[in-house]
Amino acid sequence: MAGMSVEDTFQDQVWLLHVDGSSTTQDNGASIVITSLQGEDLEFAMKFDFKASNNEAEYEALVIGMRMAHEVGAKHLLAYSDSQLIVKQVEFIYEAKEESMIQYLQQIKELKTSFNHFQIIQIPREENIKVDCLLKLASALEDCRTRHITIQYLPEARTPLAVQPITLGEDWKIPIIRWIEEGHLPDDRWEAARLKTRAARFLVQGAPSTKDPIHTPCCGAYLQKKESMSSKRYIAGVVEPMLAHGLWLIKPYEHDTSGQP
């Protein structure tokens, strides 16, 4: 076993996790790519609305990525990062001295217990291009918050068109609502994992997962880092920015989750 990676040992049982985090004037966020056993990629780009150092951004990406991988059912996880410091600290080769780094390492230590096997490997930045591109995409969409787009509906074509009969399937929102409100998942494991991941972008008024933000995998890591904040401030500081970049409300969300009257 010495010198062998998780991927070598467990071969087709390993999920892959590529993470990248950055805190600059251009890029301030995290990007994550989770590769399933079937080779399908789940891609996430996140924009931070809080100040973080580059190392903290890298740790945020790793913590969030590990939480997401656990949520979609990964048991054997091989993580890749281009940050030498983070990889060496996670592997206990380097000692963490800053309090924030120590707290991140404690979270990662706890997250490791969610997997049967976990390993992290450092790779060159040029080999981490997929997540790097996602991070730049999140930054490029920063100005979307102030954009207003008018959508008009055309009831019929301006010129006659041949009409082909179609069969409508199940409303795409129904499986998401059933998962959030009832915890119902498809029998197929991969379809269930995809549904969980997709549902993380939605909120349903009154559903358990929207009453408690930690049930949403991508928000849970923020709650760990920002646990001193009230729930109301957490919703304002984390969920609202994500609404601007792809979190959709299936029903209006008006709950005050601070627990105060």
Please identify the structural class as seen in this structure: alpha/beta
| Beta-strand content bin | 15-25%
* Count of DSSP H/I helices: 10
Total number of domains: 2
- Could you state the CATH homologous superfamily of the largest domain? Ribonuclease H-like superfamily/Ribonuclease H
Level of helix content?
25-40%
Q: In order across it, which strands form the biggest sheet?
A: 3-2-1-4-5
Helix and strand pattern: HEEEHEHHEHHHEHHHE
Radius of gyration, Cα only, in angstroms?
Answer: 20 Å
What integer is the average pLDDT? 69
Amino- and carboxy-terminal Cα gap: 57 Å
Biggest sheet, open or closed, and with what strands and sense?
5 strands, mixed
Overall spatial form: globular
Unreliable stretches: 146-152, 209-261
CATH topology tier name of the largest domain: Nucleotidyltransferase, domain 5
Supply the CATH architecture of the largest domain.
2-Layer Sandwich
GO molecular function: nucleic acid binding; RNA-DNA hybrid ribonuclease activity
Pfam families: RVT_3 (PF13456)
InterPro entries: RNaseH-like_sf (IPR012337), RNaseH_domain (IPR002156), RNaseH_sf (IPR036397)
Domain RNase H type-1: 19-136
